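fyi for ur records
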Amino acid sequence: MATIGLDIASVDGNGSPDWAAARQQGHLQFVALRAAEGLTPDTWYPTYRRQLDAIGVPNFPYLLLTANLETPEAQAQAALGVVGTLNNHYFPLALDVEGPRRGLTAAQWLGWIIRAKRVIEEALGVPPLLYSSRTYWIDPEGLNNQPAPELADCLGWWKFWPQPTLMSATYDPTIVDQLPSPPAPPPWQTQFGIHQYQGDAIHYPGFKSTVDLNRLHIVQQGATGESVKWIQRRLPGLIDDGMFGPKTASAVKTFQILKKITADGVVGLETLQRLTWE
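which gave:
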């Protein structure tokens, strides 16, 4: 069954949503919240975080990195200041990379992304998630197909919209389960943890304006590929061969027991969150 989430920012114009309705009717299980755009804190972030924490919905912050006068280091520090302490019930701070380069070359813009990533990684002890899309990464006006080996171990959160924008939200788990996987930017090959599958959706339960809808990439025995390798690199005693066989399933169960979560050998939301901190 699909694990459905959403991401929002103050600019979406939702005011104070009915999170309970979203959870009960919209199958909401996790939320990404914009913490800052450049140096500017998101006005709704503290409120949304408190509301979600109060009802036990996992949430995580993201920084929309901008190519303005502010350095990437200053932007990362500002976002970390807004966010404060995180724990393993959240994903680490995510970097949102989708905006115009504003005079920077693709190589220079990639350098900014890496510089922001290093600040976050030094502060948190683990790399950030990275939001982008294959389209943006290969676009000559975007990242122009830049290689990025230093970023390739960031958990991927990829934009790919098989569902129409500015249309009624798709949140029936049986339908969401059938959606195609997102094509990843080249440095990540097939690795991803979250798929943003519909942008600016309307009529989502509990919300009066638009939301972006996401689903978790659930990984279990029988899976293959780069997402499996990402998991294997975070568990002791495994070779990252990209084959989720019995040995990997056993290592996942051992990890789950250690973290006191359901030991089913499946990398779902709770397990993936905790693995991002390894």
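Residues 4-217 form a domain with the TIM Barrel fold (CATH 3.20.20.80). thats all i got for now
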